């Protein structure tokens, strides 16, 4: 699977999330932002930035 971070535009290392599915939360290994999986299509993961409300 491939995922581009919407914040820093770097590839997120999806090998750390072999069971990623819609609704799962992943973390960008480059900028550390938390992302929620919105859609997985043709091996491409679309994510949305999660506002943790801190
Ligand atoms: Zn990032």
Label this structure with key terms.
four-stranded mixed beta sheet; 54 residues; mainly beta; binds zinc ion; Rubrerythrin, domain 2
Short note summarizing the structure:
Helix content is 0%, strand content 35%.
Structure explained in plain terms:
The protein has 54 residues and is mostly beta strands. The chain has a single domain (2-49), classed as Rubrerythrin, domain 2, CATH 2.20.28. Helix content is 0%, strand content 35%. It has no helices and four strands. It has strands spanning 2-3, 25-27, 34-41, 44-49. Strands 1-4-3-2 form a four-stranded mixed sheet, with no helix packed on it. A hairpin with a 2-residue loop joins strand 3 (34-41) and strand 4 (44-49). The radius of gyration is 10 Å and the shape is globular. The N and C termini lie far apart (30 Å). The relative contact order is 0.30. The structure holds zinc ion (ZN). The site of zinc ion has 8 residues, from loops. Residues 5, 7-8, 10, 28, 30-31, 33 line the site of zinc ion.
